Amino acid sequence: MTNSNILYQHGTLALLVPGLLEGTLSMQELLQHGDTGIGTGEGLDGELIILDGTPYQVDSKGNVNVVDGSFTLPFANSHFAAYNPLTTVEDVKREELKDIVAKKVQSANTFYSIKVKGTFKNITTRAVQKSTEPYATLAKTAENQSIFTRKSVEGTLLSYYSPQIFDGAAVGGFHSHFMSDEHDFGGHILDFASVTGEVTFQQFDSLEQHLPVDNPAYMTHDFSNDDVLGEIHKAES
User: Fold this and answer.
1) Which helix (H) or strand (E) holds 218?
2) pLDDT at 211 over 80
3) Which CATH number is 6-236's, of 3.30.565.10, 3.30.1330.80, 3.40.50.300, 3.40.50.720?
4) Would you state the pLDDT for residue 237?
5) Which of 90, 140, 156, 224 has its CA at a distance of 20 to 30 angstroms from the CA of residue 123?
6) How far is CA 70 from CA 30, 31, 60, in A?
7) What sections of the sequence does the record tag as coiled-coil (predicted)?
């Protein structure tokens, strides 16, 4: 029996900062904890979005690939979808959308997800090129990213909201990925001019945080000298 009140998270965004980019969880394992989610592959190999149990990867060339169960990830979120209608929006800017959602859900201090299905105008996404060992820092690796744009595209925005008190484990605020209905465009959302569509909402009362305890590099790393919050905010903005 699945529990839709649990948000599962493997790894932390903080571990990406010093370059702990080894894949420490397989997609097969991740899907045991949800049919919906986001993440990145080993070496920051593209941007992942899971919709209706299907894991899509947007790679640095803009290709959309369905990955298999052996695909590994250093960081990911997943949950079992049980979204409820929240509102409809028409030509709403990105920051306006955030404000509308925040005022309606009144959930600043707990995790939740929103899903927006509709038409997005002047949307910009990105995907990072896969790196190999020895891994560089998050900031250095993220320099090798590709930017993609569409003037108008129909698709799904999947976003997780994390409370500020968890900033570092996740990114405080919204972390959003996108997939077009045609499955030919997507990635980590950098910006969009406006959206018209249906907004749905799902709140979580539990965070299941899974850490890569079998990874020696993670277990022995000293994070005290890393600019965790600064680098996360820079990379995720």
Assistant:
1) helix 216-220
2) yes
3) 3.30.1330.80
4) 63
5) 140
6) 11, 11, 20
7) none
- Is-above-0.85 flag for pTM? yes
Q: 47: number of CA atoms within 13 Å, CB side?
A: 27
Q: Buried b / exposed e across 74-101, counting CB within 10 Å, b at 16+?
A: bbbbbbbbebeebeebeebebeebbeeb
Residues 226, 229, 231, 235, Cα dihedral to 10°: 150
> Buried (b) or exposed (e) across 179-204, using 16+ Cβ within 10 A?
bbeeeebbbbbbebebbebebbbbbb
| Helix or strand holding residue 229 (H, E) | helix 228-236
pLDDT for 117-159, tens place per residue? 999 999 999 999 999 999 999 989 988 999 999 999 999 999 9
Placement of tokens 């939740």 in the chain: 112
CA distance 167 to 147: 25
Find out whether 107 and 160 touch, Cβ atoms under 8 Å: no
3 state SS for 8-74:
EEECCHHHHCCCCCCCCEEHHHHHHHCCEEEEEECCCEEEEEEECCEEEEECCCCCEEECCCCCEEC
Strand 206-210 and strand 6-10: the pairing is parallel
Ordered by start, the domain boundaries in the chain are 6-236
The average pLDDT across 104-110 equals 97
The single residue listed with the structure tokens 């105008």 is 121
